[in-house]
Amino acid sequence: MNSLLGMWMQSNRTTRYTAMQELFRHDVVFHYGDAEYAGFEALEGLSDEMQSRYPGAHFTLTAASTVGNAVRAAWILKAADGREIEHGTYFATLDGDRISSLYGFVEGTA
Questions:
Q1: What's the mean per-residue pLDDT of the chain?
Q2: Rg (CA), the chain
Q3: Which domain holds residue 57?
C-alpha cells in the first residue's frame, strides 16, 4: 500500500503512470466521496488535482490488513511542513496482484 500512497503525490508523470500500470487493472474504478474515477486518465487527473491543492504533501501509511482479495489501509496526508491535512482509510479489492476497485474514506481533516 505504500506504493499506492506514494503514487498519488508522485510529480513525475511517467513514473506515476508506470506505478498505475503496476498497481491497477486498466479498468479500475476509484470511489472517493461523491465522485467516481474510472481508468488511468481519471486517476491522473485526480493526482494532478491533489498535487495542485497540496504541493509537497505526502501520505503516511498507519495500518494495513488483508483478508482474501481485500486490502484495508489507514493513512494520513501530511503537508510539506509535517502538519496533518486529513486522515482516512482505503479499501481495495484485488484481481490477482492488481487493484480492481478502490474506495477512499476521509475520516477527519485538520
A1: 94
A2: 13
A3: 2-109
